[in-house]
Design goal:
The complex is a heterodimer of chains A (351) and B (426).
Chain A (H helix, E strand, L loop, with lengths): L2 H51 L4 H28 L17 H6 L14 H33 L5 H13 L2 H12 L4 H8 L11 H29 L3 H9 L4 H29 L3 H7 L10 H11 L5 H30 L1
Helix pairs in contact in A: 2-13, 4-8, 4-10, 4-12, 5-8, 6-11, 8-10, 8-11, 10-13, 12-13
Chain B lengths: L1 H18 L6 E7 L5 H15 L3 E7 L2 H13 L6 E4 L2 H4 L13 H15 L10 E14 H7 L10 H15 L3 E5 L3 H10 L16 H16 L4 H4 L11 H5 L3 E7 L3 H7 L6 E3 L13 E8 L6 H12 L1 H11 L6 H6 L8 H15 L3 H8 L3 H16 L5 H20 L2
Parallel strand pairs in B: 1-2, 1-3, 5-6
Antiparallel strand pairs in B: 3-8, 4-6, 4-7, 4-8
Helix pairs in contact in B: 2-14, 6-7, 8-9, 8-18, 12-16, 18-19
Classes of the chains: A mainly alpha (351), B alpha/beta (426).
Amino acid sequence: MTELPSVAVQEGGGLRRQALAATGQVIGRSVGRLVGFAMGLVDRPMKAIQRAIGAKRMPYVFLLPNFVFFGLFVFLPIAINVVFSVTGGTALFPSQRPFAGLDQYAYLFDCGSFLDPNSCREDHFWRGVANTAKFVVFQVTAMVLLSLLTAVILNMKIRGRGFFRAVYFFPVLLSPVVVALIWKWILQRDGLLNAAITTFGGQKILFFVDPGWAMFWAVFVSIWAHMGLYTLILLAGLQAIPSDLYEAAQMDATPRWRVFRRITLPLLWPNMIVVIVLSLIKGVQTFDEVFVLTGGGPGTATLMVVQYIYETAFSNQVQNFGLAAAASVVLGIVLFVLTLLQLAVTRQKER
Amino acid sequence: MKRFGVPLLFALMAGSAICSPVHAQTTLRMAWYSDGNEGEVLADLLKRFEEQNKDIKVILDQVPYKAINENLPVQLASGQGPDMARVVDLGGISRYTLDLTPYLKDTGYWNQNFGPFLQWMRPADDSKSIPGFMTQLTVTGPFVNKTLFEQAGVAMPGVRATWEDWAKATKDVAAKVQAPFPIALDRSGHRFYAVALAEGAKIFGADGQPVVVDEGFKRAAQMIYGWHKSGVMSKELWGSVSGTAYRGANEEFKNAQVVMYLSGSWQTSQFDKTVGNAFDWVAVPNPCGPGGCTSMPGGAGLVAIKSTKYPKEVARVMDYLASEPVLSEFYSRTLFVPGHLGLAKKGVDYPSASPQAKAALKVFSTQASEVAPLAFALQGYVNSRIIFNAVISRLGQAISGETTLDEAYKRITADVDQQMAERAKK
């Protein structure tokens, strides 16, 4: 008596699967026909172009749409920026701006000593440079190490691995402004952290009034917000390492630290390079989180170069686009050199 | 029949369009920011205007204050701006404003009632144009938490008390009631000048050019710097952010953490709503110093923009909004000090205000009538925001301990010179 419904369910399930498979095939055939038709439409003109320019030159045709896109939205703005950097005044259109040659650059680099921002004419720019350098050194170092540690742990067979992977990734999904606002509420005078400190008998700390604390929290919040992405990249790298290498090491009773140094780290190096380059570039470009969290203060203790550029171009009454553009060009050159350095290191390592 | 069906339908449609009583409508855009409920009140007034003027539609774009100061100038420079805008940097925007004179119904009414404020909206070499009207006249002034004074058992300083008197009294109160902010001052150059003018800052030299750092200025800067050292002011406002960033103490005042908050008349409506019966607060006249007791005037003006394609229609909207009954209703519902001389003389009734808000508005209205000419000139000076921004940026650095006051003075002078030179480049 009890088996009958079960058989019926099984039969019903089989029929449903067959029906689904048949529907799938029909949809597949229809989509295939549609794609075939679309490709046919593209095929004729492409063949005509190939006949005209030859097969060798065809890759350039495929690159063209992307090149146009990059040209419009990357190269053209860079060129406009360079034009702005050699002009002065407050007019918006380059044609209406007086030519200033290298005056904006000379103004930026007018320094008694580059190590002392106070000796520079445009001290805010150099304070921004110094703060950005400090931020990048601490943030990138801590971010790479913590991401590596987290990725290694999440790659182990631990309980709730999926849950923890999700937990570490969630902050990446939040907008930087939201992240900064959440932490601002936690860290302000009457915030959550000070409430906890006073509950345990401590004194309130004004985190945003002390330069050391402000920089510490700027670095901390940035790591908290972005670590998930870098952990994910390293985790993917760890999972790509063939397991037989670890099995062989295990058979030889190789110590764990040696396995990590000799197998994991060298094979993970390409991913590490990606993480270092990306976090370095992102670190130099830091703006939104720190701007909302500390406003660049106290004083100018957390003023970053990008905030300097933004304020020079937009928030002063005299919107000094020329000076801001010159600072942007300098920042762009720094980023370009950093990327080249990283690529050189990678190539040397590969050799 | 089928052959004639479609053309017949088109002919009928075209005919009905020609004979239709609906007129072509002109759409105008107005960029507007709000401190309180003024956006809501204006939307009501515009609705009424549209009912009376079916041929004009006004789209009200309500934007943040920051967008008016930072994005609008770029938009206007590109020739893409709105037809009208509510702006605070009247001098900075003046080169983009439209002279409404040829389009207004009665220019005499405008000159008579907005005369002194029109100069704020005009470019430097112009003494005749009518670009707009003041939606709000503001004056700086302190709000005091009266309840904290009563709890501390300290007498509140009188009408002509000095800044030093207030610093001493508020520090006593704060110590007794454990308030973290004896005095809070908006991180704003405009508010700084309420103190600097009282301390005798002269601002302009004999040739009319700015001489920002003088003895009066130094007295005020030294006093505010000293207050941060002695705990009269907390570094959380002036010392915690960088550059030209504005920081107010609205939240702290509402939470009864501030004994005396130097801000201005535009906060009245907000405090009336948010503080409610939580504690008693009063607005007091600006404290005095060797230079007098003047407030800094300011405010926002609704101006017509030069790039508009519909100057006549813009003038009709402006004529309506600036008319005495409409403007009286606007000031009354928004709890603003009137920027219309006729209404200021008659007095505006504020039926929706609480007794303490009414009292505060009375204090501010009196202060508005006693503004020193120098304060008036500074507000109207086309480069005033260059000075204000340099002051907060550099004084903030000194307060946070990054530089000395002497270094800040040098930097303020250099910043002002550099930005004015950049502006002068053609």
